[in-house]
């Protein structure tokens, strides 16, 4: 395989349309079409905002022979200004169409994207001829650009990672987690108070002793929930992701704590039932003894 350079870079041998800029060992491709996230086509310079993405198509239309493969990379002059070409790669032998990419502005300032701006560079490598059955042909130039326009409108968000949607989803997830946690706590609290009433009915001294030992822990959990709710209600959108993680951890802690409490209550109830059964047996025996004396 041979890298074509210098005099080997004759544009008429590799392009059927456009004016690629010849370098020492590469061609620079220029922007021919600009499509925003709504699918609108722009002929005037488009001001690409920070984190915004747009689709661009080359003005140049390839016509690669069967023994040449292209390798497309981004322009370092653009990356130094914060503009990335997200889709680069290989152009197969026989390709006879334009190429496209997604431009993303990861800088802090807007950047003008204009027709004719160099945006990609392509290296050409010569090799053995590829059989015709393996050659990849493009659709009509107009059809290719139309497909990119449709994809810009349907498949791509206006900003990288669609941060607004990510924040909204994180907020919704955090709210669901919080509601689920609250439901678990309410259910556990209801079961706890019902058990306390049962315990107090059968053995008040034991119940008061148990409540005294657990009062501090219950108050701590209540304060944690109140604090968590305040954080959730006052958090800003920028803190949603962090808060969602905190709620998830708190939810796990509360679930573990609830499980421990339920097990503890189950053992207490079993213990009280055993004492109550023993008390009934003793009371029954005492009554029988009294009755026997009377007889």
How would you describe the overall organization of this protein?
The chain is of the alpha+beta class and 295 residues long. It is 50% helix and 19% strand. It has six helices and 13 strands. It has helices spanning 11-14, 76-79, 141-154, 163-202, 204-234, 240-294; strands at 2-3, 15-17, 21-22, 27-35, 46-48, 53-58, 61-62, 68-74, 83-85, 90-91, 100-105, 111-113, 118-126. A hairpin with a 4-residue loop joins β3 (21-22) and β4. α4 packs parallel to α6 (240-294). The longest helix is centred in the last third of the chain and has 55 residues, at 240-294. The mean pLDDT is 78.
A few lines on this structure:
The protein is an alpha+beta fold and 295 residues long.
Task: Give me some keywords for this one.
single chain; 295 residues; alpha+beta; nine-stranded antiparallel sheet; two-stranded antiparallel sheet; 6 helices; elongated
């Amino acid at each position: 395989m041979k890298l074509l350079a210098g005099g080997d870079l004759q544009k008429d041998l590799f392009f059927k349309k456009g004016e690629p800029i010849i370098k020492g060992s590469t061609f620079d491709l220029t922007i021919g079409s600009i499509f925003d996230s709504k699918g609108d086509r722009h002929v005037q310079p488009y001001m690409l905002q920070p984190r915004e993405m747009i689709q661009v198509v080359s003005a140049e239309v390839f016509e690669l022979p069967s023994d040449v493969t292209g390798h497309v990379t981004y322009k370092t002059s653009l990356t130094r200004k914060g503009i990335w070409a997200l889709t680069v790669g290989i152009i197969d032998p026989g390709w006879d169409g334009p190429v496209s990419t997604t431009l993303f502005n990861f800088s802090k300032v807007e950047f003008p994207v204009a027709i004719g701006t160099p945006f990609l560079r392509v290296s050409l490598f010569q090799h053995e001829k590829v059989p015709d059955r393996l050659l990849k042909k493009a659709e009509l130039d107009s059809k290719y650009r139309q497909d990119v326009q449709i994809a810009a409108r349907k498949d791509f968000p206006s900003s990288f990672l669609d941060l607004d949607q990510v924040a909204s989803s994180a907020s919704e997830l955090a709210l669901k987690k919080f509601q689920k946690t609250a439901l678990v706590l309410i259910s556990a609290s209801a079961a706890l108070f019902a058990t306390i009433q049962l315990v107090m009915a059968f053995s008040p001294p034991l119940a008061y002793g148990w409540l005294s030992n657990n009062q501090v822990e219950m108050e701590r959990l209540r304060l944690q929930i109140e604090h968590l709710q305040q954080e959730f209600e006052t958090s800003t959108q920028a803190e949603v992701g962090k808060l969602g993680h905190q709620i998830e951890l708190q939810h796990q802690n509360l679930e573990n704590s609830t499980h421990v409490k339920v097990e503890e209550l189950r053992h207490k109830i079993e213990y009280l039932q055993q004492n109550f059964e023993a008390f009934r047996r003793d009371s029954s025996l005492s009554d029988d003894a009294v009755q026997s004396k009377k007889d």
